[in-house]
Design a protein that fits this description.
heterodimer, A: 0% strand, B: 2 domains, flat
Chain lengths: 197, 198
């Protein structure tokens, strides 16, 4: 689980700037940008392992609150990797979580705050509706891509087919039933403990 | 800052309950965030419309549409909008802080517990299973929303093409997100704009 890395001050800045830069792209929820975060954190910089990346998302889904907190957990894990075990790891973890959350929230929250009144007054305007509706199919594609990228990090379809079957079954349950998400997460954990997936 | 948006369809605002002060906003949003496992939207509607009656269902729907259009997490956007409406910038901060503070502490605590047990094979298995479920949760949300594309101005066929191109660009071509949003998203918005009656 440990994955020791060294982060220079410039790397921390880079991490913050990366989240600043993708904040305004997170149309349709932060989870739609998860594949890009995977590209940046795991593929390009190797600051996180695949397992830590997925654990951050799974923990945020299992814990109460907005799912955007997975970004804080990604930063937390980057900090832990940089600080190692002990107090330094905790301090760096908190620093990472704070930088990532500030970066992802600052631009989008400011824009939302400024644009709310304008959009409320102009909700019938053609350009507002075109943007809102035009982005819809793209958002669907991004959500499906996020599903695929998360699944791929767990295992390949050919060898780990029970995992992919579980993912598909959950997608169907979410779509078709009102079953509480906690039951599904619990069932997934149980299947994993038993070694069935 | 004018704190209110009068709404033509809503009953007179004097008769409606509203948050007493920013602290009330903070604790209200903390409470509803802590109830939201896996997604806070349904809880927001139940708490703010049905229980507290701070807003009507119609107002909720309109705000929700805007919250979704804006970049950033939609429930977070919604909390900023509602907070701002009642107490301006202070209200927006109070609602935002309520939505994020305590859930963040809990998420970090869960991550710490997880780290203690991470090397245990049962924990690794549990996370593996939960990771697969988490992927499925997002896919299911995508399927739910995809049904709404049937009435899209571009028609279901073109929508499927746009969604498919976006999927392939991310999954196999590994295109950076901003390029995709700019090119494919821009084209989709322009096409939609032309379809919508002026």
């Amino acid at each position: 689980m440990t994955h020791a890395i060294t982060l220079q001050p410039l790397d921390w800045l880079h991490l913050f700037l990366y989240y600043l830069s993708i904040s305004l792209l997170a149309v349709g929820g932060a989870i739609a940008t998860a594949p890009d975060m995977h590209r940046f954190l795991v593929d390009r910089n190797a600051w996180l392992t695949d397992m830590q990346f997925n654990a951050s998302i799974a923990i945020a889904q299992a814990a109460p609150g907005p799912n955007v907190l997975f970004i804080a957990l990604l930063g937390w894990h980057v900090g832990l990797n940089a600080g190692g075990p002990g107090a330094l790891g905790w301090a760096y973890g908190l620093l990472g979580a704070a930088l990532c959350m500030l970066g992802i929230m600052l631009p989008s929250a400011t824009l939302t705050w400024l644009a709310t009144r304008w959009a409320h007054r102009n909700r019938e305007r053609r350009a507002v509706r075109a943007f809102k509706q035009g982005m819809a199919p793209l958002v669907i594609g991004l959500l499906m891509a996020a599903t695929w990228v998360l699944g791929r990090a767990q295992g390949q379809p050919a060898t780990d087919w029970p995992l992919w079957l579980l993912t598909a079954a959950v997608a169907l349950l979410v779509w078709r039933t009102k079953l509480h998400l906690l039951w599904m997460l619990g069932a997934g954990a149980l299947l994993g403990v038993l070694g069935w997936v | 800052m004018a704190p209110d948006h009068p709404h033509p369809d809503s009953p007179p605002t004097a008769a409606r309950p509203r948050p007493r002060n920013p602290a009330d906003l903070f604790w209200s949003f903390t409470w509803l965030a802590l109830q939201g496992f896996g997604g806070v939207v349904a809880v927001v509607q139940r708490e703010l419309v049905e229980k507290k009656r701070w807003m009507t269902n119609e107002e909720f729907l309109e705000d929700w549409a805007v919250a979704q259009v804006m970049p950033g997490p939609n429930v977070v956007n919604l909390s900023i909008m509602i907070g701002d409406r009642h107490f301006g910038l202070r209200g927006a901060f109070a609602a935002l802080a309520g939505m994020l503070s305590f859930p963040l502490v809990i998420a970090l605590a869960v991550a710490l517990v997880y780290a203690q047990w991470a090397s245990h094979p049962a924990m690794a298995g549990a996370l593996r299973g939960m990771g697969a479920v988490a992927a499925g949760l997002i896919g299911g949300m995508g399927l739910k929303l995809a049904v709404a594309l049937r009435t899209h101005p571009l028609g279901p066929g073109l929508c499927a093409v746009i969604a498919g191109v976006s999927f392939a660009a991310i999954v196999w071509l590994r295109v950076p997100l901003y390029g995709l949003l700019l090119v494919v998203g821009g084209a989709a918005c322009v096409l939609t704009w032309r379809k919508l009656a002026p």
